[in-house]
Write a structure and sequence with these properties.
about 0% strand; about 75% helix; about 525 residues; Sodium/glucose cotransporter; single chain; mainly alpha
Length: about 525
């Protein structure tokens, strides 16, 4: 390891030491009860709630996946995705946050999303609890895998270390500090990580633009690539027989004619924003904030953070293509453009801080995924269904065992170093968005929603995501749209249709629904 690499490593180790300290600090508080371990006793302030929600949501996908898409095929796919996500962030905080914070307390003090759904419909037989908990396990295992891929690629690119070894070690680190500190440690560290992530994005973007000769020079270079800067077109890298992008006689990457990016594709890409209504790691922050009136400030903080971060991430991919046109010849490799730009242009110590941004993004998401998955098993399945007399200590032990098991599955998913982070995240995002999103909205705002309708919505949303992804999309043409959009629509239709065909909710459920509007939280 040379001097520059040593300085980068020292900066990253300093960051890791801070995160360990945060975990140790909150360990005693986390171990007071499962309520504190899984939701922090509803004590999050507005800044921590906002920053931890967005940092846990974005993951290494923000610093690697999104810039990689922009680098590989231009502005359209990345920018329309970013626009959808920004709009979804705002609407989720505006429409869902306050209502969920109140309703989760009224509905028997629910501290997990499956808890809320089950309590909302007054289940005796915990079918909704079972289905939603199992789905959390499935999709968060996939999500955790995407985070571990980002960690492995980071250390492999920086230090040439073995991808699988580095991926496994970074995963184990996340597991240990999440086991120790629980939700409060995770949220506090996510707040720190959110600051580091936005600093890293802005720093790398500004440095990259300067090194490439300014924004005008960047734009002039990229205009030479067919479709690269078009919102209604998309660049088409030409691949050789070896799967790598072809280079011409001068060593420049070869692109084919620009592809079409029509209205249906735009709507499909914008539908990423629908996913927010079903993201447990974000929704849980709404329920965990200490005071309802602080959600307005949290919303402003979250939206500003998201807009700046998404803009910077897309721009880094574009600037990277102008500055280093032949650095990466595969879509998977392109996801390292952030790392390549930072390490080539920044002083080693600062590059180390910026690289900690990727580590921060990876950790801030994976710890949330692991904690929510563990709560789904320990509180919802173990205590909620199989052992209702379980003690608080037994619940926390079951949660920690589950956390380790989900981590192991995530590591297995991440073993392939050629995995494309963007592709992994898009599937899990669709899964949560279509499975939980429609039901969350109808549960909060339509009192006629029934338990049967809720079950139909969960199963339809999840089933459509898998069927559309594996069977329909490969047919191509107009059917090649992001699976979240049709799955969200079909789930909503199923909820409404089955609710109207089934017996009306009981007076107890309706009265509780109405009482939420009058509930005055501190």
């Amino acid at each position: 390891m040379d001097g520059n690499s040593t300085q980068i490593m020292l900066s990253m180790l300093a960051y890791i030491a801070v995160i360990i300290a945060v975990g140790i600090y909150f360990a005693r508080k986390a171990n007071e009860s499962s309520d504190h371990y899984f939701i922090g006793g509803r004590s999050l302030g507005p800044w921590v709630a906002a920053m931890s929600a967005e940092a846990s949501d974005m993951s290494g996908w923000l610093l690697m996946g999104l810039p990689g898409v922009a680098y590989w095929c231009g502005i359209s796919d990345a920018a329309w995705t970013a626009i959808g996500l920004a709009a979804g962030t705002y609407l989720n905080w505006l429409l869902v946050a306050q209502r969920l914070r109140k309703y989760s307390v009224v509905a028997n003090n629910s501290i997990t999303i499956p808890d809320f759904f089950s309590n909302r419909f007054k289940e005796d037989k915990k079918v909704i609890l079972l289905i939603s908990s199992v789905m959390i396990l499935i999709f968060f295992s996939v999500y955790a895998g995407s985070c571990f891929v980002a960690g492995g690629k980071l250390f492999n690119t920086l230090f040439g270390a073995d991808y699988r070894l580095m991926m496994t070690l970074s995963a184990l680190f996340v597991v240990v500090y999440t086991l120790v500190g629980g939700f409060l440690a995770e949220s506090a560290s996510d707040f720190i990580q959110g600051i580091i992530m936005i600093f890293a994005l802005v720093t790398v973007l500004a440095t990259g633009v300067f090194a490439a000769g300014g924004s005008a020079e960047v734009a002039a270079n990229l205009k030479e690539i067919p479709g690269f800067l078009e919102f209604l077109g998309i660049a088409s890298p030409e691949l050789g027989a070896d799967g790598l992008q072809r280079l011409d006689a001068s060593g420049n990457p070869v692109f084919g004619a620009a592809g079409a990016y029509g209205f249906l594709t735009i709507v499909s890409t914008l539908s990423w924003g629908l996913g927010y209504f079903g993201m447990p790691q974000v929704l849980l922050r709404f329920a965990a904030i200490r005071k309802v009136h602080e959600l307005k400030r949290s919303r402003r903080i979250a939206v500003v953070w998201v807009v700046i971060s998404l803009f910077a991430a897309v721009a880094i991919g574009l600037v990277g293509r102008a500055a280093y046109p032949d650095a990466f010849l595969t879509a998977s490799g392109a996801e390292s453009i952030f790392i390549h730009t930072a390490t080539n242009l920044l002083p080693p110590i600062l590059a180390g801080v910026v690289m900690a941004g990727i580590l921060a993004a990876t950790m801030s998401s994976s710890d949330s995924y692991l904690l929510i998955a563990s709560s789904a098993v320990s509180r919802n399945l173990y205590k909620g269904i199989f052992k209702r007399d379980a003690t608080d200590k037994q619940v926390m032990t079951a949660g920690r065992i589950t956390l380790a098991a989900v981590s192991a599955i995530g590591i297995l998913i991440a073993l392939d170093e050629n995995s494309v982070i963007f592709a992994i995240v898009s599937f899990a995002w669709a899964g949560f968005g279509a499975t939980f999103g429609p039901l969350m909205l109808f549960s909060l705002f339509w009192k006629r929603t029934t338990r049967s309708g809720a079950i139909a919505g969960l199963l339809t949303g999840c089933g459509t995501v898998f069927f559309w992804k594996l069977v329909i999309r490969p047919l191509g043409g107009v059917l090649n749209i992001y699976e979240l959009l049709p799955a969200f629509i079909f789930s909503s239709v199923a909820i409404v249709a089955v609710s109207l065909l089934s017996k009306e909710p009981s007076r107890e459920i309706v009265d509780e629904f109405d009482s939420v509007r009058l509930y005055e939280a501190n």
